[in-house]
Design a protein that fits this description.
mainly alpha, two-stranded antiparallel sheet, 28% helix
């Protein structure tokens, strides 16, 4: 009895394992395409494109000092020759720095002159190593004589 119940329970499962009929795929349809042979034509119309143009030879430029460019004497892409002036920097900041350095130098020279006069007597050679006033014997409680 259990065997027949088992077979009856297994029967619906086996019925579900049958192959289903496959749906037929739609037939491939050819798409019509128009072709032309490649040929060269001349065109008088400009065609906008993007890209980068680079020269065969390039030279990196720079100033020996930093600063603000005051004037540029050549156009970009123009031919230049060795030694040609290309641009100048604004010199006002360097002129201010020169004036400040000149003032600092003058102040230092003035101080040197005053110190030379003040300490000129002290720069004479020492003639004696004896103290100028007599030294007192030091004993606890004693101080310099009045």
């Amino acid at each position: 009895m259990t065997r027949t119940l088992f077979l009856l329970g297994l029967l619906p499962l086996l019925a579900g394992c049958q192959d289903k009929p496959k749906a037929s795929a739609p037939p491939e349809v050819a798409v019509p395409v128009l072709t032309q042979p490649v040929r060269s034509v001349s065109q008088n119309q400009a065609v906008p494109v993007s890209g980068a143009l680079e020269a065969d030879q390039t030279v990196g430029l720079g100033f020996q000092l930093g600063g603000q460019v005051q004037q540029v004497y050549v156009e970009e892409g123009a031919a230049v020759r060795k030694g040609q002036l290309l641009a100048t920097l604004n010199a006002s900041s360097y002129q201010y720095a020169l004036a400040a350095a000149t003032a600092t130098l003058a102040r230092a020279q003035d101080q040197y002159g005053r110190f030379k006069i003040m300490f000129g007597a002290a720069s004479r050679p020492v003639t004696s190593t004896r103290p100028r006033r007599p030294t007192a014997r030091r004993r606890p409680g004693n101080t310099w004589p009045a």
